């Protein structure tokens, strides 16, 4: 019987334990969610004929995203969701709309030469830009948004020592008065109009953020102070973020939707199902097969797409031997250093089939960086043909041939490899894009295999592919042969993008192809020419660059893709853009009944 | 402990009777027999995969997502590849993972368990700590980490999550089970008279371990190993679902099932067939293990011999 | 007994150290790291990278990094602002004092983030465990007592099937049927929600909570019940076939009394051990369930950390997970010793 007593005791103990665990589990959520402190004055400009006057139906939408955003800050994070949520609460001085036009946000207008906002010294090329700020924008705590906030943010950005084309060009940023800022550049900065704006440059509040904590680390990245259309009300990590309407938003009557919820749902198929069931309103970046299903009419959902292409699917060949980081030594890549091989690789890729059958039509063939406005007709560069026979001939010409019949070419008089070496390389993509890219990956590898080029396929996380050299970052360390991922420049001007990716002499580690030599130097000199105000001349220079890139192929552009979203039928006013993040015009969104 | 000594003596005396008895008992287990037959069919068909006219890794883009038909019995996948042939090749990979994992865990677990159980004392103390430490790692989480790391380590054979890499990842955590089992067996048998006698006759430790004690544990080791194959196949599929399993284009049942989830409502055949394969393989392996456990149970054998 | 517990607790310490050294070494050979977050299409100056490394203490040898990780650096002079001069004492307290460092992803301390998700996981997995126990224990007992009955055969077959279904596959099917397929006849909405812990923005409601629990709990329950009931069945059978039960039966004792007084009691010992061994799942959670059902728990957080190579976070979760496992095993041993008088405390 003593035994039995022990069992009872044990049972009681276990029960108590489990119940405690359960209660602990429930406790933090048991508190009812905080109600937004909506003022009693019900704004009735949108809903005036409701039968029950005192209970105006609250409009609420749900946006589905796959990852927990790390913070309210676009600059330090790479997923885009950080940018999307920071656009909800913070304004920039200027922005770009979905058609690629600059528009002022905190500023009263975009400074131009015509309105006197931009003045260039013809002798020294030094340029002064003057910004005038709106005087009717307030932070949610009642403080006014002033020039101090802009300068504060810029100083914090500088202190973080992250390079941007603007940091190099800028001589000073100074406050003229509370609502006027003067910026002086050493030379014309082609991207001056979004110096304090764009998708990843929100203005932070000087009185709220602690500069000592640093631009990346400060607490206001996680507890943002809003001057934008919405105010963060609740953030349950890994679950959802709730934003409520900013009653004091500077644009009268906006935003129209009372509550915007970002819900974090990792599984793509579950997101699609939630849209079908009417449990969500925006499916952020759906997979291509789901995008296609959103295009079909009549199931309660619809499809939204940016008017211009945003991303360019590109192949990055490494022109130097693996692991040979840019700098002193230059051991050419045994296979890829020969531009005939690169040309043959491109010729063997059936871009049309990839776009139409794998990407389900979501994409346009692209063969140059300069494919979208303001550039016309890819600077006249003709579209390269898909031609397996020509590719085979070119590979043979380059000195690669399969003489032993094992299906893989060996070097027979090739330029950079030992005689008899096998034509074997690694071909890498990143995991986050999903199945479509994996299909394209395998499809391209197959075509190359038909040329006698053996590729080992690998898929890695973006966090490793793009990491710093010290952290084993594959690309920056040059530890790859061929990579494929979607790249391309944001905004409308590719100058700093070119500087980053093709300027061999810069400290840029992003010269991923490790491209050097005479032509690379020519391109570098041409990029320097781009810091000019003569638009016509710049266009010429851009096209000169385009032709050299076409000839040398330090990167192979395949096709461009658009920004795509699935929407519920009731969503109105959503304008996906290639130049900014989806929520750039969230204040204009409405829901129809 | 007289009974176990009896088992040992009887084993020694009549090996033929013993194995035929085990076989007879195994045969009487309907689930086990069914399992064995299904598994045999699976293994056979997987081995014969090469006879198919289709290649598992060559795409046929114009025929993507074809439903099952006379030409493609199980339909085609997102690159137009025949699902049946991919399942067969995937079966090679999945079953290889199963066997490799068991092989790895035996290769690590048996020596360690033997040493710990045979020598006891500080050897046992140290080895047990290692066993316990390994067992105290949260399994799935650790496998994810290991797989993520191995994926980018630039070592021959290990890159790109090959069959061998994933088997290593799974095997690194599964050997302690084998080690513990072997250790327990040694604890039971090392004090036996015949072991002492062998020692007195000057047999080396290695010899005693291998030929005197280890054979006694064969039954439970076989049972555990059989079940281990099933666990490994299941774990590989879970890792694949989370994106840390075998890398495409190499098919495995796990990664095929993973890729199918996006198209579950549109192209259900992509999910049904690999799912069915995993289900069949694991259920038959478990039944075989169960039958073996019954058949190899020393008490039951003893009872039968006594009858 | 008390001495035994203390001794076992002391033995757990070197074990944890061993685990932590292993994990630390592993994580440090891995690619990806604290500076990765600054990378994509941004450029960091070499000086900045150097200074960040010094700030994170990554320029020190591994042994020093381990000691700092374990015991903190507030007792040693370090280079806080990354200018190359060791100017002041560090601020890290070390794992031993509950400081698991900062997550690379959002630069927030690791431990509070873990503590933030832990209740959600305990809530889901604890309930799953309870449901499993409620279903599996009676099934296991009955099928052992009525060995080879129709019930036993059905249950055994079902449990074999339950163990052979991939968990995530089952979850997807559940979502397809109960979220996408079936509708609530009254409201016309989905019968059960497809994920999350509760309806966002709604008032707390028990029914809403339960509705959100049904699918994820069911998904976890199937395999687990199959496993437990089979285990309980075989340990019951082992006991039933033991000599003293036979003796009790032979003595003509009431069958029911024999079964419940003697057999069940002894079969429960391995069951309790098993519960304790599975108990850590309540804390470490189930990555697959949380991933499928958008459940904001430990498993999800771990998975995200793994894909973005957030090593402090991974280390934190793994170390805490190991701790729970070691403690649970310890508890299992103690309970075993407590229940089974045959075990000597040595």
Explained architecture:
- The complex is a heterotrimer of chains A (about 600), B (about 300) and C (about 350).
- Chain A has about 600 residues and is an alpha+beta fold.
- Chain A has two domains: about 325 residues, Periplasmic binding protein-like II (D-Maltodextrin-Binding Protein, domain 2, 3-Layer(aba) Sandwich); about 250 residues, Dipeptide-binding Protein, domain 3 (Roll), CATH 3.10.105.
- In chain A, about 25% of the residues lie in helices and about 20% in strands.
- Chain A has 14 helices and 24 strands.
- In chain A, helix 7 runs antiparallel to helix 9.
- Chain B is mainly α.
- Chain B has 13 helices and no strands.
- Chain B starts with a helix and ends with a helix.
- By secondary structure, chain C is mostly helical.
- Helix content of chain C is about 65%, strand content about 0%.
- Chain C is built from 13 helices and three strands; from the N terminus they run αβααββαααααααααα.
- Chain C is flat.
- Classes of the chains: A alpha+beta (about 600), B mainly alpha (about 300), C mainly alpha (about 350).
- Chains in contact: A-B, A-C, B-C.
- The interface between A and C is large, with 80 and 78 residues.
Note the topology:
The complex is a heterotrimer of chains A (593), B (307) and C (346).
Chain A: H1 2-30, E1 60-65, H2 81-89, E2 94-96, E3 102-104, E4 118-120, E5 127-132, H3 147-159, E6 162-163, H4 165-169, E7 170-177, E8 180-185, E9 230-236, E10 240-245, E11 259-264, H5 268-276, E12 282-284, H6 288-295, E13 301-305, E14 311-317, H7 339-347, H8 351-358, E15 364-365, H9 388-397, E16 400-401, E17 410-411, E18 424-430, H10 435-450, E19 454-460, H11 462-465, E20 482-487, H12 495-502, H13 518-529, H14 535-552, E21 556-561, E22 564-568, E23 571-572, E24 590-591
Parallel strand pairs in A: 1-11, 1-12, 18-19, 18-20
Antiparallel strand pairs in A: 2-3, 4-5, 5-8, 7-8, 9-10, 10-11, 12-22, 13-22, 14-20, 14-21, 15-21, 16-17, 23-24
Helix pairs in contact in A: 7-9, 12-13, 13-14
Chain B: H1 2-13, H2 15-27, H3 30-47, H4 83-119, H5 121-135, H6 139-152, H7 163-189, H8 193-200, H9 205-213, H10 218-241, H11 253-260, H12 269-296, H13 298-306
Chain C: H1 2-29, E1 43-44, H2 46-56, H3 62-71, E2 77-78, E3 88-89, H4 110-145, H5 150-164, H6 167-181, H7 206-240, H8 243-250, H9 255-278, H10 281-284, H11 287-292, H12 298-307, H13 311-339
Helix pairs in contact in C: 1-13, 4-5, 4-7, 5-7, 6-7, 7-9, 9-13, 12-13
């Amino acid at each position: 019987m003593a035994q039995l007593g022990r069992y009872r005791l044990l049972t009681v103990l276990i029960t108590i334990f489990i119940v405690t665990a359960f209660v602990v589990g429930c406790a933090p959520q048991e508190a009812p969610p905080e109600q937004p402190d909506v003022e009693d004055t019900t704004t009735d400009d949108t809903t005036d004929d409701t039968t029950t006057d005192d209970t105006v139906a609250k409009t609420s939408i749900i946006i589905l995203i796959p990852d927990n955003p790390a913070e309210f800050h676009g600059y330090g994070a790479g997923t885009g969701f950080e940018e999307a949520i920071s656009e909800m609460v913070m304004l920039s001085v200027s922005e770009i709309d979905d058609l690629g036009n600059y528009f002022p946000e905190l500023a009263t207008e975009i400074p131009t030469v015509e309105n006197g906002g931009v003045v260039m010294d013809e002798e020294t090329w030094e340029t002064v830009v003057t910004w005038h700020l709106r005087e009717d924008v307030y932070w949610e705590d009642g403080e006014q948004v002033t020039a101090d906030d802009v300068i504060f943010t810029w100083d914090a950005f500088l202190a973080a020592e992250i390079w941007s084309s603007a940091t190099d060009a800028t001589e000073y940023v100074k406050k003229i008065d509370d609502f006027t800022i003067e910026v002086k550049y050493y030379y014309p900065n082609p991207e001056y109009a979004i110096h304090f704006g764009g998708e990843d440059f929100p203005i932070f509040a000087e009185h709220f953020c602690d500069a000592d904590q640093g631009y990346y680390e400060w607490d206001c990245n996680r507890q943002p102070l809003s001057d934008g259309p919405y105010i963060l009300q609740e953030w349950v990590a890994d679950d959802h973020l709730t934003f409520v309407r900013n009653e004091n938003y500077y644009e009268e009557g906006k935003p129209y939707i009372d509550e915007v919820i970002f819900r974090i749902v990792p599984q793509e198929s579950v997101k699609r199902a939630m849209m079908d069931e009417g449990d969500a309103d925006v499916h952020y970046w759906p997979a291509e097969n789901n995008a296609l299903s959103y295009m079909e009419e009549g199931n309660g959902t619809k499809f939204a797409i940016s008017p211009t292409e945003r991303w360019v699917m590109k192949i990055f060949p490494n022109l130097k031997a693996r692991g040979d980081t840019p700098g002193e030594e230059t051991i050419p890549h045994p296979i890829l250093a020969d531009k005939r091989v690169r040309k043959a690789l491109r010729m063997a890729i059936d871009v049309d089939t990839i776009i139409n059958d794998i990407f389900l039509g979501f994409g346009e063939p692209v063969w140059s960086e300069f494919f979208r406005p303001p550039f016309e007709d890819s600077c006249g560069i003709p579209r390269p043909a898909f031609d397996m026979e020509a590719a085979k001939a070119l590979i043979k010409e380059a000195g690669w041939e399969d003489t032993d019949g094992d299906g893989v070419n060996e070097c027979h008089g090739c330029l950079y490899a030992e005689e008899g070496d096998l034509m074997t390389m690694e071909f890498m993509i990143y995991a986050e894009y999903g199945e479509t890219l994996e299909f394209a990956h395998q499809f391209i590898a197959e075509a190359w295999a038909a040329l006698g080029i053996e590729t080992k396929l690998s898929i890695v996380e973006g966090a490793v592919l793009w990491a710093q050299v010290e952290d084993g970052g594959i690309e920056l360390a040059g530890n790859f042969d061929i990579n494929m991922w979607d790249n391309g420049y944001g905004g409308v001007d590719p100058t700093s993008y070119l500087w980053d990716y093709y300027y061999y002499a810069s400290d840029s580690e992003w010269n991923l192809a490790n491209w050097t030599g005479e032509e690379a130097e020519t391109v570098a000199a041409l990029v320097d020419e781009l810091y000019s105000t003569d638009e016509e001349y710049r266009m010429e220079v851009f096209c000169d660059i385009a032709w050299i890139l076409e000839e040398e192929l330090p990167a192979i552009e395949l096709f461009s893709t658009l920004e795509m979203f699935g929407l519920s039928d009731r969503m109105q006013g959503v304008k996906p853009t290639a130049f900014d993040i989806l929520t750039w015009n969230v204040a204009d969104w409405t829901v129809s009944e | 402990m007289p009974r176990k000594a009896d088992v040992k003596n009887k084993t020694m005396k009549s090996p033929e009777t013993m194995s035929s008895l085990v076989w007879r008992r195994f045969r009487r287990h309907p689930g086990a027999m069914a399992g064995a037959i299904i598994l045999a069919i699976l293994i056979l068909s997987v081995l014969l995969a090469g006879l198919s006219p289709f290649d598992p890794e060559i795409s046929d883009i114009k025929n993507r997502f074809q439903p099952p038909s006379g030409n493609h019995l199980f339909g085609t996948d997102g690159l137009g590849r025949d699902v049946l042939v991919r399942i067969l090749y995937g079966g090679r990979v999945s079953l290889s993972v199963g066997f490799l994992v068991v092989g790895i865990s035996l290769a690590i677990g048996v020596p360690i368990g033997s040493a710990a159980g045979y020598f006891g004392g500080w050897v046992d103390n140290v080895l047990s700590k290692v066993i316990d430490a390994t067992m105290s790692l949260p399994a799935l989480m650790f496998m994810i980490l290991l797989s993520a790391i191995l994926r980018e380590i630039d070592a021959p054979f290990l890159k790109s999550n090959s069959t061998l890499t994933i088997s290593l990842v799974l095997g690194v955590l599964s050997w302690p089970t084998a080690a513990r089992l072997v250790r327990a067996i040694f604890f039971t048998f090392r004090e036996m008279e015949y072991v002492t006698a062998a020692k007195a006759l000057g047999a080396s430790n290695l010899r005693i371990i291998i030929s005197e004690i280890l054979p006694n544990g064969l039954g439970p080791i076989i049972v555990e190993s059989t079940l281990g194959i099933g666990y490994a196949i299941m774990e590989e599929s879970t890792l694949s679902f989370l994106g840390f399993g075998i890398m495409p284009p190499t098919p495995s049942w796990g990664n095929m099932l993973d890729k199918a989830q996006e198209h579950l409502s549109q192209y259900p055949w992509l999910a049904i067939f690999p799912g069915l394969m995993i289900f069949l393989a694991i259920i038959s392996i478990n039944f075989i293990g169960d039958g073996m456990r019954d058949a190899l149970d020393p008490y039951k054998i003893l009872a039968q011999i006594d009858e | 007994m008390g001495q035994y517990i203390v001794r076992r607790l002391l033995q757990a310490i070197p074990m944890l150290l061993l685990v932590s050294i292993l994990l630390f070494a592993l994580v440090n050979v891995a690619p990806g790291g604290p500076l990765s977050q600054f990378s994509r299409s941004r450029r960091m100056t070499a000086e900045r990278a150097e200074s960040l490394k010094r700030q994170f203490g990554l320029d020190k040898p591994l042994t020093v990094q381990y000691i700092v990780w374990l015991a903190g650096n507030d007792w040693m002079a370090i280079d806080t602002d990354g200018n190359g001069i060791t100017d002041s004492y560090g601020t890290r307290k070390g794992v031993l004092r509950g400081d698991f460092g900062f997550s690379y992803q959002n630069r927030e301390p690791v431990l509070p983030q873990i503590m933030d998700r832990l209740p959600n996981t305990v809530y889901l997995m604890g309930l799953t465990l309870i449901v499993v126990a409620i279903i599996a224990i009676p099934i296991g007992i009955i099928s052992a007592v009525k060995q080879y009955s129709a019930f036993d055969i059905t249950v055994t077959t079902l449990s074999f099937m339950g163990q052979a279904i991939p968990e995530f596959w089952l979850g997807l099917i559940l979502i397809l049927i109960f979220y996408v397929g079936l509708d609530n006849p009254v409201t016309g909405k989905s019968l059960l929600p497809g994920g999350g812990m509760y309806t966002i923005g709604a008032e707390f409601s028990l029914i809403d909570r339960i509705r959100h629990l049904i699918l994820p709990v069911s998904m976890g329950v199937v395999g687990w019940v199959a496993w437990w009931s089979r285990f309980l069945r075989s340990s019951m059978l082992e006991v039933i076939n033991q000599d003293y039960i036979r003796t009790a039966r032979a003595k003509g004792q009431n069958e029911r009394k024999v079964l419940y007084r003697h057999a069940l009691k002894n079969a429960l010992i391995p069951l309790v051990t098993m519960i304790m061994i599975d108990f850590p799942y309540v804390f470490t959670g189930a990555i697959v369930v949380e991933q499928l059902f958008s459940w904001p728990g430990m498993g999800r957080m771990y998975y995200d950390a793994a894909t973005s190579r957030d090593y402090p976070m991974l280390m934190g979760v793994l170390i805490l997970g190991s701790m729970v496992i070691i403690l649970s095993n310890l508890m299992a041993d103690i309970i075993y010793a407590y229940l089974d008088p045959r075990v000597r405390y040595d």
